[in-house]
Each structure stands twice: as C-alpha cells, then as structure tokens.
C-alpha cells in the first residue's frame, strides 16, 4: 500500500499511474478533500486542520509493506520507525541510515533562515522534469522491493 502525504505532493498523477500498473492501493491523506481518480485502488482520508492530523493518520497506517511518500522529514522519521519504506517526491529513498542527517540539516536550515530573516536565503530548489523522472524510477524500484 502507498500512503501519500498529499496536501502539497507534486507527483500524485505519477503515483496513480504506477499504482494502477502494479495494482497497488493508494491512500491519500490531506487536511481537506483533494480531487483524485474515481478508482477502487485510490482512497482519500481527510484529516482536518489540526496540527499534524494527517501525519498522525499516516503513521497509524504505516508498517512493514507500506510505502510513505512525503517531503515532511519528521513524518518520514516516524514512518521509518513504524517499519514503512519512505520516498520523497524527488525520488530520494529515506532510511534509518540517512534520516538523522537529513533531520539535522533541516533543523540547521530552519535556524539559519530564522537568524538571517530578510536576507534572501531561499528554500529548496524548484521541482523539475528530471525530478519527476527520478521519482517514477524510484517508485517502481521500491514497489518491486516491497513485492507489489
């Protein structure tokens, strides 16, 4: 099963395409309703607007054999601890070996941005066609590994 942190996920259409090919169920989690294909493999869970409500629901469903797709590093860490595989929309596989460094870097960047407010330091680079292609390849590999 694929669990998607869907509010700002730029690769939902790609997830659907690969899920249909693998006949793998997809659950979308978001604060409010998002349009999605009317297909028995796709379900939508509206978490409401409480802080981390969607994250909590995703973690509750996470475990061995599930794949979580998210850019949210604290959510990724929680899902990994629950036994899930984790993939970012840019095709990066997150795991126990790299999540600690990624979290530390995230925290450092938050502190740097706060310390130099108004100095023009930006966020992550824009999402590209190459990122989309990398994601598709990584998603296929991970699903094969999970036996989907």
Automatic annotation (TrEMBL):
<dbReference type="InterPro" id="IPR003791">
    <property type="entry name" value="UPF0178"/>
</dbReference>
<comment type="similarity">
    <text>Belongs to the UPF0178 family.</text>
</comment>
<dbReference type="Pfam" id="PF02639">
    <property type="entry name" value="DUF188"/>
</dbReference>
<protein>
    <recommendedName>
        <fullName>UPF0178 protein C7455_101523</fullName>
    </recommendedName>
</protein>
